[in-house]
Amino acid sequence: MVSPLIEIEHLVKQFGAVTAVNDVSLSIRQGESLGLVGESGSGKTTLARMVIRLIEPTSGKINYPGVSDIRRECQIVFQDPQTSLNPRIKVGEAIGEPLLIHALLPKSAIPLRVKELLDMVKLPAEYAGRYPHELSGGERQRIGIARALASRPKFLILDEPVSALDVSIQVDVLRLLRSLRDELKLTYLFIAHDLSVIGFICDRVAVMKQGELLELADKAELFAAPKMPYTRKLLASTLAF
Question: What is the pLDDT of residue 33?
């Protein structure tokens, strides 16, 4: 049995009278890619943001047995990298910022590390001198991934990281994420509404609806014999299946 990196116990999040996440319990194993699927408003992004401590739960617990420094070792890649990249600063500065925040390297060593991170995401070193608006959507997402990797995390939340990209670019980014997971021994929580994307990159799948966890199973098991009608509906709506 692979030991858990993160354990979620009876998690609840309320926004006024609205219960966005309702009594969710699950564990994320070290080295796996756990897919989190559901329609818009199902609570999957709210759950992920609690895991990474961007928001606090109303009740329940999140334990981090495999993480010693949440702020450094747990990072997030957003759906739209424009929301996380400052348009006024160059790409190299954006990638290097986490290195300064966590005091991981002396300032003189940061440009070399930025070059290494750009190489990891298959972009030329000269991109460090460009501004976000000078890049394509796929290139900006690669910059967002490089920035998330700067602090040498163990765990990445990937919040719909390819849904805003053209299909051909989606495949390239997904292949990159899969190779990075293997190369860097990363653990992923991968949020998506498209089960074909989940099928490409994830090991297990958690299905959410209206804030509740309906089903959790290995990918092959869930795709072959989903237990819940809602999961069967999601599968039927995905052309790849």
Answer: 98
Query: Is 241 part of a structural domain of the chain?
Result: no
CB 168 within 8 A of CB 174: no
Calculate mean pLDDT across residues 82-87. 83
pLDDT of residue 167: 87
- Whether the pLDDT of residue 239 is over 60: the answer is no
Which of these, 80, 21, 16, lies nearest to 45 by C-alpha position? 21
Residue type at 99 in one-letter notation: L
Total tally of structural domains belonging to the chain: 1
Give the position of tokens 């890049």: 135
**Other beta carbons within 10 Å of 19:** 16
Range of the domain at 19: 4-236
Answer for the pair 133, 87: CB distance below 8 angstroms, yes or no: yes
Structure tokens at 52: 């990474």
